[in-house]
Specification:
Strand 3, helix 3 and strand 4 form a beta-alpha-beta unit. With 155 residues, the protein is of the alpha/beta class. The radius of gyration is 16 Å and the shape is globular. The chain has a 4-stranded parallel sheet, with helices on both faces. The protein has helices at residues 14-30, 48-56, 77-96, 111-116, 118-141, and strands at 3-10, 34-42, 63-69, 100-105. 49% of the residues lie in helices and 19% in strands.
């Protein structure tokens, strides 16, 4: 099952996000059935939805991975950015019927906390994108009979 991945990376907090991208690329290279078709950079996490939408329109993108770091400042701005972006991303996933994985650390996170999560968040974002794409393909291609006694588990 060939899975074509678009990645959107925030340039803000690039010390973290560019390292996240390297981790993500390493993991994708381990899978023979997946490849990255686009890597797009945006100024910040808040700017991701419009780029994600453009990728979702592409026929050679099956899933999108987001990579970003929202660091806590002196105000609650980080929460507003995180909540707004997460909501828009989930709406785009439903609109285009393609999975988008949330590889964004924060809010309420220090730089050191985000740095410590580079590997785990990046890997989780790639695994989630691949698993959701595979599971959606399975359920979309499965002919499910309407019988009460039959339960289909997609895992």
């Amino acid at each position: 099952m060939n899975i074509r991945i678009g990645i959107v990376v925030s340039e803000f907090n690039h010390e973290i996000t560019f390292a996240m991208l390297e981790e993500a690329k390493k993991l994708v290279n381990e899978y023979l059935t997946s490849r990255i078709t686009y890597i797009c950079f945006v100024p910040g996490v808040f700017d991701m939805p419009i780029m994600i939408e453009e990728l979702l329109k592409k026929k050679n993108v099956d899933t999108v991975v987001t990579l970003g770091a929202i660091i806590k400042g002196e105000t609650s701005h980080d929460r507003m950015i995180a909540n707004s972006t997460a909501k828009l991303i989930s709406e785009l996933s439903l609109k285009y019927n393609k999975p988008i994985s949330l590889g964004i650390t924060g809010p309420d996170m220090t730089f050191e906390q985000a740095e410590a999560r580079i590997e785990v968040v990046s890997q989780h974002a790639i695994h989630t994108a691949l698993q959701m794409t595979e599971r959606l393909r399975m359920i979309r291609n499965k002919k499910i009979k309407n019988k009460r006694s039959k339960i289909t588990v997609v895992d």
